[in-house]
Write a structure and sequence with these properties.
Helices cover 37% and strands 16% of the residues. By secondary structure, it is of the alpha/beta class. The protein folds into two domains: 38-124, Leucine Dehydrogenase, chain A, domain 1 (Rossmann fold); 147-283, Rossmann fold, CATH 3.40.50. The protein has a six-stranded parallel beta sheet. Helix 2 links the parallel strand 2 (42-48) and strand 3. Helix 2 (52-67) crosses helix 10 (282-303). The chain binds nicotinamide-adenine-dinucleotide (NAD). Nicotinamide-adenine-dinucleotide is lined by residues 150, 173-176, 178-180, 201-203, 205, 208, 221-224, 227, 242-245, 281-282, 285. Nicotinamide-adenine-dinucleotide binds next to helix 10.
Length: 316
Amino acid sequence: MRAEGTEQELGRIIDGQAIARSIRDELAVEVAALAEGGIVPGLAVILVGDDPASAVYVASKERACREAGMHGVTIKLPAETTQQALLEHVHALNADPAIHGILVQMPLPRHIQSDAIIRAIDPRKDVDGFHPINVGKLLIGERDGFAPCTPAGVQELLARCGVETAGKECVIVGRSNIVGKPMMSLLVQDARWANATVTVCHRHTKDLAAHTRRADIVIAATGRPGLLTADMVKRGVVVIDVGINRVEDAAHAKGYRIVGDVDFESVRPVASWITPVPKGVGPMTIAMLMKNTVRAATLIAAARGETCSFAGRGIA
Ligand code: NAD
């Protein structure tokens, strides 16, 4: 779509699935090179309980690792697993030289304190980037930590589409620790594909539309289907939709469909770039998890004095 009387192209879709595929292919090459030096990046995922959505995510993470030539293990534990037993699994993985990345699938059963589990993971193996050490490193701009996969994936999408962020007004809607806040930490840095002027909105923000209307880039991560509508954005905006929401839909075989936080149909014609849901941000999360695991393996190998070619948290 090209708008009349302007050179700006509108309605371009950011193909997260294709970009994630490229990253995974690049990682497979990196993994093969590491294998020549005797290093096989290993990711361990712990799943507690039998939440079906979590089981699907975990299976796709393990599959993606194997496909890239990495070592992937899933530890499935019953819902009644004690916090102490879970901590012991984490400690064993911290000590396991074949494992470079550890991910404990959230949410955990209520009787387990997630914070205690996250803090028990060796920060050098914290490929989810949720350990306070990695959260702090990201905020102060130290590049040897791990950024959480979903916001890192968003930054990578922007970079690979050539969406300049420097000096741009970037409005993030949502302030969770897994998306909104680390997204802010990434984009506010004095770094390539960052240097944005960042506003973080949340449920207490007065007049959300007043913020989103002046944004060059809007990143929606609220879990509210269709929250962002065309009247809330300016022409030419870049829209990244992190939301994954189930809405009832009798027309679909499953009785529901997956939508984002953005009213895609109305916003697309006025946006210069927009991510779809599904196949936008979602596939990037797994690709970045793999990327973090390969980095963890190279950083751990480098610390041991072995060869290392992929240590920086570079993007694109
Ligand atoms: P969360 O529930 O932890 O946080 C939601 C945030 O949105 C809160 O900060 C809240 O203040 C804000 N919010 C809610 N309603 C609002 C409103 N009306 N106006 C402004 N702000 C509002 O959610 P989360 O874990 O950050 O996830 C957000 C969405 O992203 C969910 O749909 C989730 O499924 C999805 N998600 C996708 C991926 C992925 O891989 N693509 C990863 C993580 C989360």
